[in-house]
Design brief:
It comes from Candidatus Enterococcus palustris. This is Ethanolamine utilization protein. The chain has 209 residues and is an alpha/beta fold. It has helices at residues 3-30, 44-53, 69-76, 83-93, 108-113, 116-131, 139-151, 166-170, 190-198, and strands spanning 34-35, 62-64, 98-101, 134-137, 163-164, 179-183, 187-188, 202-206. The chain has two domains: 31-146, no CATH class; 152-206, no CATH class. It has a four-stranded parallel beta sheet. A two-stranded parallel sheet has the order 5-7. Strands 6-8 form a two-stranded parallel sheet. Strand 1, helix 2 and strand 2 form a beta-alpha-beta unit.
Length: 209
């Protein structure tokens, strides 16, 4: 086989592999129940972050990337007309948290240029959605939070805890970090000790006296 033919073959295989990896990545993101037409705004890393900071870690997180005024009204009247609205209503009924990307709200022009009564209605709707478990976050806020998570040691806040639980560790899990600095006054629960052994996490004790 000529060198050029071999190089072309390698290039084709590489392209196919990269396409497949991208497809797998997208499927992973989809498994979190990503709704709306702006799904490509979010990466797997973004979704992982949102899931880790959410209250309902046992379930797939619902993230809405596009929301119209009609979606808002139908959802809050519990009269869903499409899959997106049905999913949000079901999530509310189950008492689970969901995330709305602020940039995907198509009714923003109504808030800035609409009549006062309409603005108030929209703000009341959003407040009600928040009370039902909706969290509003902009892309800029999300990207900044993901970036901060990379630079700030995830276990930094554990230094001065009186009791260390499994939840404290899993909420800040980072495969790249395997050392936790704790005060010698900290008590570790039995489950946390098991988790530390399982994940091979090192404990660095500091003297608080």
């Amino acid at each position: 086989m000529k060198t050029t033919d071999f190089d072309n073959l390698v290039e084709k295989i590489t392209k196919k592999v990269m396409e497949r990896l991208a497809e797998i990545e997208q499927n992973k993101i989809q498994s979190h129940c990503l709704l709306g037409t702006n799904q490509k705004w979010l990466t797997r890393e973004d979704m992982d972050y949102l899931h880790k900071v959410s209250r309902n870690k046992e379930n797939d997180l619902v993230v809405v990337t596009e929301l119209s005024f009609e979606n808002l009204a139908n959802t809050l009247n519990f009269n869903p007309q499409n899959e997106l609205e049905q999913t949000i209503v079901q999530t509310i009924k189950e008492g689970n948290e969901f995330v709305i990307i602020k940039d995907g709200r198509t009714y923003l022009s109504l808030v800035t240029a609409g009549r006062y009564a309409l603005k108030k209605t929209i703000l009341d709707f959003e407040t009600q959605l928040y009370r039902y478990g909706g969290t509003f976050i902009s892309l800029a806020e999300l990207k900044q939070s993901v970036s901060d998570r990379k630079t700030v040691p995830p276990y930094e806040a554990l230094k001065h805890k009186k009791y260390l639980t499994v939840k404290d560790l899993t909420d800040r899990i980072n495969d790249c970090q395997n050392t936790v600095e704790l005060s010698d006054q900290t008590s570790i629960t039995d489950y946390a000790k098991e988790y530390i052994r399982e994940k091979k996490i090192n404990i660095s004790w500091t003297n608080e006296k």
